[in-house]
Design a protein that fits this description.
Number of helices: 5
Helix content: under 10%
Distance between the termini: 65 Å
Number of strands: 36
InterPro entries: 6-blade_b-propeller_TolB-like, DUF7133
Strand order of the largest sheet: 21-22-23-24-36-35-30-32
Shape: globular
Keywords: Signal
CATH class of the largest domain: Mainly Beta
Pfam family, one: DUF7133
Radius of gyration: 24 Å
Protein name: DUF7133 domain-containing protein
CATH topology of the largest domain: Neuraminidase
Largest sheet: 8 strands, antiparallel
Structural class: mainly beta
CATH superfamily of the largest domain: TolB, C-terminal domain
Organism: Gimesia algae
């Protein structure tokens, strides 16, 4: 009774301080967990709330550093783990997960960093090959391991990770290859060197590759540093994420297509190998603003989306398409991008302008138990999240594990889409806005900036400019706000803060910040 009395007194005090009962939202702020709830399936902490008569823990020696997830059906998934195994997990959709079972399917793999299931077989990219793995005798244990494709270099450098595959709409399997950072003499003896630029790397390191249904491995695009995530949108186009470092200003999302060069120049060590679609780069524009570097180097292509450092993550990982038809909330058709260091997930809206992808990123969900490395959408629309922070530290309470993110069916007040317009941006909201606050220019702050393209590690935001919002038009249904903006700049990030906008029922935006990469201004 004392506790209830204290809580009641505090509630009355909060209402008084807020000024009216209608302002309680400003005191009791909505949290991400109100809309997307985390369920821990397996983390190093004991799941005491999941104890049941038939509950069994994971095998005592199972370090579930999830590096790939394949959804099998409405009660099972398969996970690859970094030490080289594939496990089948049953009962993973239960809430709480009382009866999860574990069965080891495959062993002796070399750091698999991806997993798909197709036509009765698993496919994973090991450090040196794309492998098909099957159970041929029906005992749920793999007995056939076949090389599907190989041919990229492995010099022995620790940073030569290989990721994938993902499957496009034509049946091709795509993979990406890390570069080695600072090759030593013993590594260079196994590397290739471009005779003009002098860069040395393992064969095809820093490249995106595709393997056709016939097994032909084809180099597609170059310039990757640490391309840890791969994803395919509804149109069947393939994307990858890259992580900040030398030549890479900040984390980024790129549309993979033939002949594109993105940013990391050491990938050009393979430029003159047979089959290379990237040609003719003889000079590197080092130390210029990125828009200027694009003019000097026509092969260089901008990312579809920049993720401003720390504001939208520090180390981008996996890409998951929300293909749930609304089962996972209001973001059907958009991408979710994992984040290693901050143990979080960002959301991405993409659009095509003049035939090229660009768009906005938004914070989405934080608070995972460890670094988010892999994501996959379950049959019920929920998101399975694979965790491992080995090699680099991350936020969180665990070093590895598997969690599941479930929409609570409660609608968050968010900027659903940010679309480029000839004279500004159109914002699409998940709920109708309060017309007074949404039409007030003081509710918004907008600035633009770019980055330096250089050999140094990362880049500060440079050439910043605060932008004036000249007028705002709200749609009749209250779901859209059209912002007329003075001073748009092509090839700059446009950072929006809409903290002053309220919904019709008085809510503040759950995430008021958006970051739009304006590669092209619509005509």
């Amino acid at each position: 009774m004392v506790t209830r009395a204290i809580l009641f007194t505090l509630t009355l005090l909060c209402i008084t301080l807020a000024g009216s009962a209608g302002d309680i939202q400003s005191v009791f702020a909505e949290s991400e967990a109100d809309y997307y709830r985390l369920v821990s399936i397996m983390t190093p902490r004991a799941q005491t709330e999941s104890r049941a008569a038939n509950w069994k823990p994971a095998p005592g020696d199972l370090v579930l550093e999830v590096s790939g997830i394949a959804v099998l059906d409405d009660h099972r998934i398969a996970v690859a783990i970094r030490k080289g195994e594939i496990w089948i997990m049953d009962g993973v959709y239960e809430q709480p997960p009382k009866n999860v079972t574990y069965k080891r399917f495959a062993t002796a793999l070399h750091e698999p960093l991806g997993l798909i299931y197709k036509d009765g077989a698993f496919y994973t990219v090991q450090r040196s090959e794309l492998t098909r793995i099957r159970d041929t005798d029906g005992d749920d244990i793999a007995d056939e391991y076949l090389t599907v494709a190989k041919g990229w270099g492995v010099t022995g450098h620790y940073h030569e990770y290989a990721y994938g595959p993902v499957l496009d709409h034509d049946g091709n399997m795509w993979l990406t290859l890390n570069i080695g950072l600072g090759l030593k003499k013993e590594h260079k003896s196994r590397a290739v060197t471009d005779p003009t630029l002098g860069f040395s790397q393992g064969r095809w390191r820093g490249w995106g590759m595709k393997c056709t249904p016939e097994g032909e491995l084809i180099p597609v695009c170059a310039g990757m540093r640490s391309p840890a995530g791969l994803g395919v949108n509804r149109a069947g186009d393939v994307f990858y994420t890259d992580q900040q470092g030398n030549w890479v200003a900040t984390n980024s999302l790129h549309h993979m297509r033939e002949g594109a060069f993105f940013h990391h120049v050491e990938a050009l060590a393979s430029m003159n190998l047979p089959g290379s679609p990237v040609k003719g780069i003889k000079e590197i524009p080092n130390g210029l603003p990125f828009p200027e570097a694009l003019k000097r180097m026509p092969q260089l292509k901008p990312p579809a989306v920049w993720f401003p450092y720390k504001k939208a993550g520090q180390s981008a990982t996996d890409i998951m398409l929300d293909d749930s038809g609304g089962k996972f909330g209001p973001f059907d058709g958009q991408f979710f991008v994992g984040e290693f260091t901050q143990a979080s997930i960002q959301r991405v809206f993409l659009e095509k302008v003049d035939g090229e992808y660009q768009g906005a990123c938004f914070p989405f969900r934080s608070g995972f138990a460890s670094a988010v490395l892999r994501m996959a959408q379950g049959t019920d629309g929920s998101m399975f999240v694979g965790l491992t922070n080995r090699g680099w530290s991350s936020l969180g309470t665990a070093s590895y594990g598997l969690q599941r993110l479930v929409w609570t069916k409660k609608m968050p007040f968010e900027i659903k889409e940010m679309r480029a317009q000839p004279e500004g941006f159109e914002l699409v909201f998940t709920k109708p806005v309060d017309r007074k606050t949404a039409a007030d220019p003081k509710s918004y702050k907008l600035q633009s900036y770019t980055y330096t393209y250089h050999s140094s590690y990362g880049s500060d935001e440079i050439l910043p400019r605060h932008l004036e919002i000249e007028s705002i038009t709200i749609s009749d249904d209250g779901l859209k706000a059209n912002l007329k903006v003075k001073g748009l700049r092509a090839l700059y990030v446009h950072e929006l803060n809409a903290e002053g906008v309220k919904s019709q029922d008085g809510q503040s935006l759950l995430h008021p910040n958006a970051y739009y990469t304006l590669n092209r201004i619509p005509k």
